[in-house]
Amino acid sequence: MTRKMAATMAGAGVIASVLVAVPTTTASAGPVICDPGSTAVRWHYTKKPWKITHATSKENFSGGELRRTVTVERIRRLQARAELHTGAEVESGLATKIFASLKGKLDLTLAGEGEWTKKASEKVEWRMKKQGRYMFYAGRRQASGYWQVYRCDGGTKWVAGKYGFAKSFSLNTEGAVWCKARPSRTSLAYVVKKHYC
């Protein structure tokens, strides 16, 4: 994603000193604005959409309520990865800082560098109260964004450093949705219904 990332970030004014989100000073003897040698991560274009990782359909036309424990099959795996704008991996120490920063930015509990969603199936227990089709599912928020690291130079200015892209995933969410239901537009159930019902 090297050229695409560079074009995206350059077009948005994200590269190097073009960023305006980090305070800067022009005089080396200016006021102290940061701890010398400290680093900070700044983010652009962060997002956290729902991603469906498991889905299975069941129907209830029994004339009554059914209670089922359904094995929901995997349809997608998610990965946590931080990379430089060149596409190269980020060293572990910096990756840890990047994911901790993304966690705070998006207020999510996120997986660390190199982790994957692993389960081939999930078991979901649900009461099918109404007649019709149900989707049983599991999924997570996929967090991502463009990052850039800044280093405090002499306590008086922030100097732009490495930059790239990172993505991770949140804790597992599972459930079921009746295909005639009207779930909240912010819920995973809404995404499942939109894609599969």
The N- and C-terminal alpha carbons lie at a distance of 34 Å
Radius of gyration: 22 Å
Query: How would you sum up the major sheet?
Result: 6 strands, antiparallel
- Count of DSSP-assigned helices: 3
Q: Summarize the amount of helix as a percent range.
A: 10-25%
User: How would you spell out the order of helices and strands?
Assistant: HEEEEHEEEEH
Mean pLDDT: 86
How many domains comprise the coordinates?
1
> Rough shape?
elongated
Strand tally is 8
Briefly say what this structure is.
The chain is 17% helix and 41% strand.
SSE blueprint and pairings:
Blueprint: H1 2-11, E1 39-47, E2 50-60, E3 66-73, E4 81-84, H2 92-106, E5 121-128, E6 132-153, E7 157-169, E8 173-178, H3 188-196
Antiparallel strand pairs: 1-6, 2-6, 3-5, 4-7, 6-7, 6-8
Task: Explain this structure.
With about 200 residues, the chain is α+β, with helices and mostly antiparallel strands. The protein has one domain (about 1-15, about 35-195). About 15% of the residues lie in helices and about 40% in strands. The model is unreliable at about 10-30 (pLDDT under 50).
Note the main attributes of this structure.
197 residues; alpha+beta; two-stranded antiparallel ribbon; elongated
